[in-house]
Amino acid sequence: MKIFKTSLLLLLLSAIFTILLIEIFLSNFFPQPRSDSWRVQNERGVYYNANNITARHEYLGKNEKLSVKYKFGKYHNRIYSDFEISNNKNNILVLGDSIIFGWLLKDEDTFIYKLQKDFIDLNFINAAAGGFSDSDSSIYIEEYCKILKPKKILFFLEIDRIFYNTLYSLDEDNNLVKGKVKINKFKKKLNSSRFYYYINKTHSFQIIKKVYFQLSSQTFINHPVKGKKNITKNSKNEISKKKILSKQIYNKIVNDVIKCNSEIIFIYLGWKSNEMLSNIKKSILEEIPAIVNSSNNSYFISLDEEFENIRLKKKTYFLEEGHPNKNANEIVYKKLKSRLNDFIYFN
Length: 347
Hints:
By secondary structure, this protein is α/β, with parallel strands linked by helices. Helix content is 43%, strand content 16%. It contains twelve helices and twelve strands. The chain has helices at 2-29, 98-101, 111-118, 134-148, 185-191, 194-199, 203-215, 236-259, 279-293, 308-312, 314-317, 326-344, and strands spanning 39-41, 47-49, 54-60, 65-72, 78-79, 90-95, 122-126, 152-156, 168-170, 176-178, 263-268, 298-302. It has a five-stranded parallel sheet, with helices on both faces. The longest helix is centred in the N-terminal third of the chain and has 28 residues, at 2-29.
């Protein structure tokens, strides 16, 4: 029995020593971006940001090594250390994807932070999240609009991803039907584990996680799964169906905003040139103004023409990782500030 215990102890010590050696080797020769987990699913499977936590996000590229920390508030929103949400201020709810969130950027380099600095008498509640579709943003409005009671909602359009998830569909009569995204029970269990929080900070575990991400179909948030055929046909019938679905969703958004006595500004940032857009996106963009003009509480801003210079100079305005950098955010801030003055303070 004593020999068995000794052997077991030696085996355990050998395993620990081996793991430490692997970790030291990886940290020196093959370092991995050690990003924390900061996404949680609601009852319908929408991946919100987590709430009331701090998370690290890293990217290690050939030319850029980035490490930033995000702070999240109780509304699944990114919060900024220099500003506190006050009950004495009007709320401006911000919704969109990773670009609006400020992916891999420090607080002060994001355009929302810069707007908050200028409009100091307002609370900018940035609930944008990586991979968010307009469907996800719609559900956030449904869940939180009456709680936050925003004076205005800045809704940054991300059209294509509507058709990648199952949050909404049409019935035989083209009525909008609510659906769900499958809950990732494994991720939910991991997020509740303290062990996962600490092991997530190791280089060796990040390699394991990377392999899992590449193999699992449950880890992609509103993006087509790599290696599988993405069904995006452009037949007239499908374009017609998608247009009806998108119209129904945007009309629902406008109606939900009316119910919480708010006003919404749909904003299109033209990161891609018109010829690079899908046929369905082009078609829907043409109809957005008509949808917006059908209500007194909704408005539309397009910065497509203003972003021509950004599109032509990717090395100047985009991170090596692919998202807009602080230079691009500075331009978004300047363009939006001049346009939003008239919208945010009107009665």
